[in-house]
Design brief:
It contains two helices and seven strands. By secondary structure, it is mostly beta strands. The protein has one domain (about 35-135): Immunoglobulin-like (Sandwich). This is PIHD3 protein.
Length: about 140
């Protein structure tokens, strides 16, 4: 039997802890807002009319993920948003959303905008899949 960690008092390895578990708080009374996950892809006439790039309407051919989160009675300044590679963590005084994303994303280069007339936060994230350099060459 060989101990992998340097500290022998450690009861688990960091690889065993699921990503995003540090955000999980079952005692938080805030309700989860309504949200919607949409996928977006860049297509041109060569894709639509000629089918030259092998793209299809599936999520496997989409470059971006758009998450629309309804936040009624919320000001832009009250929103705290944290994006990890597979986790979206949103908190406001009344709402809390911990979302495990369906695909890994580029957490450093996302965009968010608050549509105050619709009371919706729109977060656009670039999907980061392992073989995208082959699919989108």
């Amino acid at each position: 039997f060989q101990v992998k960690s340097e500290n022998r008092k450690t009861i688990w390895n960091t690889e065993e802890v699921p990503e995003g578990s540090e955000f999980d708080d079952t005692w938080d009374p805030r309700e989860q807002p309504e949200y919607q996950i949409l996928f977006k892809q860049c297509v041109g006439t060569e894709d639509v009319f000629f089918g030259m790039s092998r793209k299809d309407p599936s999520t496997a051919c989409c470059e971006d993920m758009v998450i629309k989160i309804k936040l009624p009675e919320t000001k832009y300044s009250d929103i705290t948003l944290d994006i990890q590679d597979k986790i979206l963590d949103l908190r406001t005084p009344k709402k809390k959303l911990l979302l495990h994303l369906p695909y890994r994303v580029d957490s450093k280069n996302g965009k968010a905008r608050f549509l105050s007339e619709e009371e919706t936060l729109e977060v656009t994230l670039r999907v980061s899949r392992e073989f995208d350099f082959i699919n989108f060459a």
